[in-house]
Amino acid sequence: MGQVKSGGIYYGWVIVGISMLVAFVISGARMSFSPSFKPMLLDYDTNRGLLSLAMSINQLFYGLAGPVTGWLTDRYGARTIILISALITAVGLVGTSLAPNLWVLYIAYGVFTGFGFSGTTTIPFSALITRWFRRKSGLAMGLSTAGTPIGHMFIVPIATYVILGWGWRYAYAIVGAVIALIIAPLAWRLVKGDPRELGLLPDGDVKPHAVGATLAGAGGTTSMPSQNLAQALRTRPYWLLCIGWFTCGFVGFMVSTHLVPFATDVGMGLMEASLVLSLMGAFSAIGSFGSGALSDWIGRKNPLTAIYFTRFLAFPLIMLPAVSSNHILVYLFAMVFGIGMLATLPLASTLVREIYGQQSMGVILGTILLAHQIGAAIGVYLGGAIFDATGSYFWAFLMSSVLSLVAAVASFKIRETPRPVYIPRAVPAE
Questions:
Q1: Which residues contact 7 (CB under 8 A, 6 or more apart)?
Q2: CATH code at 272?
Q3: What domain range includes position 148?
Q4: Which of 147, 185, 207, 429 makes an SS bond possible with 23, Cβ 3.0 to 4.6 Å?
Q5: Model's pTM, two decimal places?
């Protein structure tokens, strides 16, 4: 069977490209909450804990929807789930722009966009890309994930410019319209659920690629059998990944939500503080791409451990009293933390596929993501509540640093299985 390409390029890279584009816009919408934070505080005349609750509800519903989204992706394919979720996200963002009080904000931003984000980010695209790539899955996942920090780099400053000029409500309305009118139709048009739909093989191979012993599978063979969710729940790596991702969510979203408010608290202007968040996004892109590509050569567990340990080391930079007079510490934190902010995603997602197989990857990854989102919901709220109680983020940052060390230890204890080798069933050339 010969290799079939689209315009001279293996169509799997088109899938990676559309996943980067969706992640670019969706992540920009998610991160715009941080520069919107203080303007929303004034608009709703509330405190940081109650406003943080909107993001906490968002993350909780994102997580609760994860297993369902994963099951639906496994059953009906990523293309349909991505379209429906993008439209739900758009409705939620436009509703957010119109929310007259916190209760409506909790429903529009918390519930609707939470459900919508679940089907436009990690779960469907991870399941999709690992169907199109086997040997190059780390690189492909790294590139796909890089769309998220690139969204931080570009959309956050643009959203901040809109916030400063016209208000935070206009920023959310614009992003919602872009998702509904451009991103959703484009994803529906370009996403293909499996390389076999186009007569292709994973990785763009010209002929079936095989190394080592194999076991039979549905459309081909693989070196280890797929496990379902019930089987995964009885294994140690599953729970170690859950510990790591709970911490990842707690720390990552506490920082991404409260970094801009913190930076303005220590004397930065809103635009400069937003650029710090964008800088973190730039270094996240480097870390995401680099960790994904590197893991194809050295494995997933050790880079994952190193990333969590780097987060542990980053927090003292913004816990020093000198941070109020020396803003360079905030920039240094953004760079060090940014390297590992999103690099966990391609590593953990690929580990799930390698340990448990492809067949139930969506639902297994969805349940692990639930741990991530529960952590995110708790971390976001505690960041605001701790500030309200103490007038500082110090204890929230200290808690995040300690949890990052716990995640590093848990990740190091994961027993990394040998890499599965996929052998597509040979199909005679036409």
A1: none
A2: 1.20.1250.20
A3: 11-424
A4: 147
A5: 0.80
